[in-house]
Amino acid sequence: MPDYTVILDDLDVAMRLGIHPYEATPQRVRLSVRMRVRYASAPSADRIEEVLDYDFVRDGIHRLAGGAGFALQETLVEAVAALCLADPRVREVQVRSTKLDIYPDATVGCEIVRARN
After folding, report:
1. Which of the chain's termini has less CB crowding within 10 Å, N or C?
2. Is the pTM of this model over 0.90?
């Protein structure tokens, strides 16, 4: 059974994320996702139906960003990881979030790795 790494990198969204009063309005957040995906066999027909279509991850992140928001980046990355692991072919997922505009000289972020039991 072959494994592939499927990557959605540097997706910028505007969302409510944070605990401070100045974070009550949407801010720029960058998300990157790496999924280790296992297929029953190597794709041979060159058709999207044979593989994981990463549109579901991008669309899911946009839905999360458009929701009520998150207080913590830790909660956000857990929600993205759960979204990815909902597809049974995803064996492991690495999710990184970064707040881009909190400090003028640095970004702040959180990264996790979650695997299917």
Report:
1. C
2. yes
